[in-house]
Structure formats: structure tokens, C-alpha cells
Write a structure and sequence with these properties.
mainly alpha; 10 helices; single chain; SQR/QFR_C/D; Cytochrome_b-558; 226 residues; two-stranded antiparallel ribbon
Amino acid sequence: MNWFTKTFSSTIGRKIIMSVTGLFLCSFLVVHLIGNLQLFNDDGGAAFNLYSHFMANNIVIRIMEIVLVLGFLFHIYDAIMLTRRNKAARPIDYAETRPQENSTWSSRNMGLLGTVILVFLIIHLWNFFVPARFGGLEGVVIEEVEYDNLYLKVVQSFQVWWYVLIYVISMIALAYHLIHGFQSAFQTLGLDHKKYTPFIQSFGYAFSVLVCLGFAAIPLYFFFKF
């Protein structure tokens, strides 16, 4: 196992882990967004509450939540370690640099973008996930069965202007993070070819913008609707 430990603790090994976990988290974003689109149903939140109940009580989903948490932790840990190694390798900046000529703004600020996303994630989990999993939600009866009314929690949360603002700003940060990270992940995994790279770049850009627009539309919809 010594070779395994050395491989995945090396710089390239950590980049591979970053890429794999990053793409896995992208798949989670798609699934999460599809579920959240139930909020737009004009049914008083019935579809969303049923969806939330299924997600909270399905054993496969609960196991995947553990995998998801591990994915986040590995992604964050490797990001910190790679940043520290990069700074240690070049403790003193060059006297004259023009980073804007050689890289994009998002690639130069992945640490800042990641920090914004992490802070948002903590707030978001505390506001929605903790009450949904550990109690504190009002009940609602759907077809003579009582469920937790997570839909009401969503409506109430998105009436708070500063929370909506944080949410939208975080989605902008996530979009920039994904625009660079999506293409970078494929490049790290060796899936970089002049024939396919332009498509990967275009798809990654469209994916990043559309997914984050979808998430940002939810708080704005409820803020202006009620």
C-alpha cells in the first residue's frame, strides 16, 4: 500500500482526486437541481415535500449522502494541500507578472471562489439540512399522511433579503468555480485533445451557467412571488 499512499499524496495524485471528486460533485448538482425544480410546481409544495420525504427515508440515498460528504471533504482537503504546496514552491512572487495574459480570472481565484462556496454550504446545510434530518419543521398533511413541510421552510427562508443575496452571490461564485474546474478536471485526467477540448470547454461553460442559473432562480422566484 506504500506505493498507493505515495501516488495519491503526490501533487498529480491530489489533482486526480480533485478532478474525480469535482466531477462527482457536478453530478450531485444536477440531481439536486432536478429535485429542487419541484418547488416550481403550483401545488402548494406537495410534490417537493414528497420528494424531500423520499430523499430523507431512502436507504440508498442516505448511503450516497455519506459518499457525498466524503467527496466534499476530499475535494476541500486536496484543494488546501495543493494551494499550500504551490505557495511553498514559490514563496516569493516574480518581480513582474502578467497573470491576466496567461490565465483566466476564475483559475487565479479558485481558492477565493471555493471559500465563498464553503461558507454558503455551511449556512445552507444549517438552514435546510439540519431541520430536515433532525426535526424542527412544521408538519403538513398530503393525501391523509403527515410529512415535514420543508416547502414552508423554503418559502420563509427566501423572504429574507440578505439570505437571498448570499444565495445568488454564491451561485455566481459556483459558476466561475465550475467554468474553470470542469475543463481542468478533464485535462488532469488526460482527456485533453485538440479535437475534443473545444467541445468540453463549451459544454462545461454551458453546464456551469445553466445549473447555477437554475439554482439562483429559486430564491429569486420565492422572494418576488410572496
